[in-house]
Queue: 4 jobs
Job 1
Amino acid sequence: MEIRERSFVTAEEVAKLAGVSRSAVSRTFTDGASVSPGTRKKVLQAAETLGYHVNHLARGLSHERSNIICLVVSDVSTPYQAQMIDIVTKKLQSVGKIAMVINTIGSTEEVAAAMRQTVNYRAEAVIVLSGTPSPSLIATCLSNGQRVILINRDDQLSGPTNIVVQNGQAGREAYQLLKRAGCARIAVVSSTAGTPSLMARETAFIAAAREDGRDTQVMRTGPTGYATGAEAARQLFSRTSAPDGIFCITDLLAMGCMDVARDEFGIVVPDELSIIGFDNIEQASWIAYNLTTFSQPLGAIAEHIASLLVAGGSSAAANETVSFHPVPVWRRSVRPRMPRSGE
């Protein structure tokens, strides 16, 4: 038996079966449009018979606002990025937007190609979670009526909305937490990624320690992941002056570091080692880690993005920088405050 390949049912086919005009079909499926009850009934019956569905993409491309919001991302499999995409896309969908994720490796070239795709799809806005687009490319997007939203990117560029998390504040607070825990030998486990958000945490922690007259061991043994944290721990705890307090600039680094410290060196957390992470990924709360960390307010960020897009307005007038504060989450990987001498 030969199976005939079918294409999507068109509005013209619905109009023919219903005995109405093509515009009557369009009005029937447009909220608030004027159409008589009799015509509406005939169109809906014909649409059900044929299995017709409105092509929202084509409809959006023929209007000023497509409702398509593109997210340019990389490392989508990492817990933090997956959580961010999950929260933002759900929020966008709840306000009637169409979330389109463009997966890149984060390089300048791939981010540029992704942003050109967003113009081709006439996306209403582009949210850049990974990589840094050039000012000229941002200008192209803005001139095409797009709103551009950069999250924790390298430069506070003119034109787009810049959403930043106060990473430096968290770095300084992490140092104070370890200091209050009585840690005498401190270290920071970072990565070779060198992104602005990661470097801000690292440099702020080191600066806070230096202002307190203390040196900090710094380990950057690879990319931002579990294996890098594990290798950092092997090198740190092979030294004579091994740390008793570590700030890891992400939770994945902290987990790798903690596992090696406990399993390969027999170190007891938090009695012999206090350790802090950043991101508050789901795994940080697992019993095996109970990791003290900092939570990025992803829900609040998603709410702000949605409010910007629902409000609409000129993309050229969207130039602003909005800051969000990370929230410390106290768990059991850090010792309680140690009493000072004489207390």
Note: The mean pLDDT is 86.
Job 2
Amino acid sequence: MKRVITINESRLARFSAVAGAVLASSAVNSQIVYTNVDPDIIIDTASGQYNLDFNADAMIDVTLNVMNVMEFTSISTSTSAVYAGSLAVVTPGIGAGVVSAILGSSSSSYVTAMNNGDLIGTAAVFGGSSMAALAVDITITSSSSSYQISNGAFLGVTDKFLGVKFLIGTNTHYGWARLDVSANADTIRLKDYAYNVAADSPILAGQTLGLDAISVENKVTIKTTLDNATINVTPDLIGGRVVMFNIAGQEIKVVQITDVNTEILYEGVETGIYTITAQFDGGMVNKKVYIK
């Protein structure tokens, strides 16, 4: 079954604001290669590890695996403990990494379960090439006590995203994989994945289309204050213009869009109701504003 993932306007606006400089310097209409995994791939101890190759170049970009834990450890000469449970883990390939968060004030990191629309790009923190836990569910039992370790950002989640960077040749590319992980960390379900063909260009978690396939209305945000209006666009719309019209339909101000953020000032404009229009070859977006 094909999955349709939508990204709302505020997510796209944040994406264009953060990633604009990067995209503007590369392929602003960059292609997103999306793979719908149907049926879903189930990774558990019976299936063994799964090697994910985003661009089918026979290079492993990340490996997903589930491991059973059964370990006896001596605590003292008279006491031992048993570790039993499951680990769901990810191992980046050569030159690859997964989006991670720094743990407290230490240099340790853990894999981040990203939400739909989160930005995956150069600004993200990526864990290195060592194995990292998506989820842990282990019970530690000794003769005197028993307690459970259940943690990891992916533990018991549905439809969360693993942010990935990987190499195609010597170039870095960004992608995502959508996962479910069971509540006891013994199953990973891979549902779909995608990556940006343009090197060093970001992608949104859940993004399945390039910017050129998204409607103009979903690529423009107009925010107003008492003194100005700020127009935020995705980089492919750079080159358009912003026009302020009075109630009679006359052009009062015109500003060219040369960046992802464009400001139009109200200075010198008389009190009244005006329409601010962002105009592009593919359409326009309007917003009315009252200026005192």
Note: The longest helix spans residues 9-24.
Job 3
Amino acid sequence: MKILMMLLFSISVLSVSAQVRVSKNIAYTDAMNDSRRQLNIYHQDLSKSVTSIDGRDQADVLIFIHGGSWSSGKKETYWWLGRNLAKKGVVTVIINYGLAPEQQYKQMAADCAAAVKWVSANIAKYGGNPDRIFLMGHSAGAHLAELINADPQYLKAVGFHGDIKGVVLNDAFGLDMGEYMSHAEQDDNYYNFLRTFSNDPATWILGSPLHYIENVKNPHLIFYGDRTYPAIQIQSKRMANLLKTNDVPVTLREIKRKKHVGMISQMVFSRNQLYGEIIDFLKNNG
């Protein structure tokens, strides 16, 4: 079975690679040699006609922020996500950002906001529409995506004056860090998170996207696994309910038989069901 799965994956990769180009290690700040402030762009071959998901000359743009407990992870890991989405007509940007312990959440969010500003100014050169930028993140990356979406200070600070057309949250961790840190078992993960959010309960609240829910007006697509961490399930449902209460368009989807890591690793395969839902979300919103 494992051999068959690897064969199918290899065939999928070869098919996607033939139609997609990648521009790597682009600095999105003035720090040209800082690998933590770089991004990769996956797009269709611009020497041929670019076909977006709805026929526009410029394609929708999805910025993906990786997870890793705010202390690990890198953009290169998710090359398959970029290629799979680009094949489907989405210009996909996968970013790095500063990590703990060198950085805390505010600097991480500032990095992500700087990447958004860079994409807005430059993505047209890669076939993307700067007026149709969406955010997506997994785990801690989903927290950062929602934080810069909900707390206006970050995008304002970098001079981004556009709109985020929508947000895709994949098994988002930390939507309410105040709640989590106040009740979580004080294990290795807890002490790891202190490096990102400090030991100050007031900071935990300020770093919680749900603290700014009244600011959120754009459509959301929220996935969570039915076998993921209870905190993710609880907070994803709460966010969806609060958005509905505020008349914000939101779709909440529980994915069967998936744990936390499996919620993103399943997307290695280009025919995974989440792609269809994401493409529909982009097409129908913004």
Note: The chain has one domain: 2-284.
Job 4
Amino acid sequence: MKKHYKLAFLAMLLSVTANGLFAEEAAATVMRTNTWIRSSTSNALASNPANWSLKHVPTENEVVRLPASNPRSIIWDEEAPAVIGGWLQEAGYLAVATIATSRDGTFNELQVKGDFIVNDGGVTHHANSDEDKWWLKLNIGGNLKIGTRAYISASGKGFASGKGPSPGLEPGYGANHGGQGSTKVGADFINKSLCYDSIINPTQSGSGGTTKEGGNYSYNGGGVIIIKVGGFAKHDGTICANADNSNIDGTNYGGAAGGAINIDINGHFYGDGKIQAHGGRGWHNGAGGGGGGRIAVVYNRVCNGVNDGRDPSNYATRLITAYGGVGETSNPDNTGADKHVRAACGTVYIENHFATTVPGGGNVIIKDWQRSTTASTRIPSDICDNPMEIKDAGIHVHQDSFVTLTSTINIRALLFYGPNGLDLNGCYIYTGLVKDDRLRKTLNDFGTYDSMNYNDIFAPVIFNGGAITIQTYLKPI
């Protein structure tokens, strides 16, 4: 009898453990595991059965296990399965897993039925060059966990130098994406530096840096990371799509542009990890930096199909950044300010379904760490399939940022934080309210405000023939 009680107690203890502190790791062990055992003489392809402990390529009912005992890199090639049961990179696995998903191929995304856990090492996609072929696209049915030393990266995987939808206009100019790249020192700014890609659903790589004629080096923009999570996401590491930084002395390289990160989480989102899509550094002879990329993060109060009514996230948005790149000059005759030919930041879009149930009704955050010189963040995108995509969003213009309108827009709210700038560029903004956090003032008096009908809350605004109209915001049904 005592033996039966002990067995029952042990079963209960195991059940509590699996559903408690170690639920994330336990979920990855429900299915049979297939362990990566690649030898030093074998290729790195996941489609090679000899590289796996079960002597066959993992199936949709098996968890891929990348163990600390065999930290050799893996390429999940196009011949490997597009659907697997789960993914577990153990602590101590310090290699990189390259997943060969492509936007125009048969292997468009890797579907993971269970959890995707990266405790150590990295996950990336192949590098692009002249065309935007490769991206990292994951469809995770369970939960996502990224450990403190782990990373998911598309940094330097975008367009090569001089390539992409909007590279620099000439050698030494920074490339563009979510924000404009900077000119080289002393050059007149040409407003043909175009921003591109969706703000709320970005999918394009950053354009490459520009080189002097005959340059032998290439500095790529950031690539693309697209992740859909069916459960919750706990992120303590790094998710990045930064551009390459130029560092070759004696050359004139304009910085490359940051890439795109697009994360859609069905459940809670928490952790202390960084999410970055920064523009790259320009180098030498006054070259300008590259523009910041685009980041969109959507998360929900629903987790595993259950709506618990709580705020779904305690993730600090200060950890999500798309800064512009800095330029540099070695000319001793230039002033100190010329040594920072700063590009403009890109955009960060946050949609919290605890606060809004309207798709596209989140907040566009425009935030840099140092004011750009001549570049700006252009809203809406110059090149975009849906320029009205932010009509239900709030626009938050933070310190050290400068925004230029490209067309008249309708938005939910306009908020200013700290010293910044907004050039209406002859366009109109129709909004429900305007708030200046520095002045601690909110303006919701209906009417049209321009340079002739000025309100002190518009100190950051250059009207330039445009106006701001406060009107009733009609929330979509």
Note: Helices lie at 2-19, 23-27.
